[in-house]
Amino acid sequence: MVDTTAHPTVPLRPMTVPAHEAADRSRAFHEVMAQRRTVRDFDSRPIPEEALEWAIRTAATAPSGAHVQPWRFVVLTDPERKRRLREAAEAEEREFYGRRASEEWLTALAPLGTDWRKPFLEIAPAVIIVFEVHKGPETPRPYYTKESVGIAVGLLLASLHQAGLATLTHTPSPMRFLNDICDRPSEERAAYVIPVGYPAPDAHVPDLQRKDLDEVMIRL
What we know:
By secondary structure, the protein is of the alpha+beta class. The protein is built from 8 helices and 4 strands, in the order H-H-E-H-H-H-E-H-E-H-E-H. It is globular and about 55 Å long. The mean pLDDT is about 95.
């Protein structure tokens, strides 16, 4: 039992779903999310700013270790910053594809059709840079930082998809150049680069299959 005299609490107001509706709601959400695909061909037309803001609000509802909420979402729309982002990311990716990646890794990536070229970083109308916030002069020590930020990003992708927006999760390595581009302090460390926009009219995606339920779920 939590000692409510030491730390204030509020009554829980859970979302009540009748048992006979639970499976239907889960199925409906799955049917929407099953259409989500990583997109590399973006249209440059603007996206609703409010939809972007609500998606980030949703991401920020994620649970986090000790409720420290160790995340920062930097939204890039300025063409000059996006140009700098693309140039720096492509420099890292040329090194990755040319020298650092093993043959096994490159073989695994081959069906996705990826290479060092990242034009989507400039074409997409917005790019969200997700930073992990670590201990600093004005920030508390976080706990389970990567896990917490990973959950938040999952909610972010789901919310953006619900709004009809396409995304891609890009993780150039190393990422320290993003602190300079985004004017962020050293205690913040970039974890994800997420272009956001509408798919280009002629966009194609790899013909991939997701694993069946019995391959990913184990009952004990």
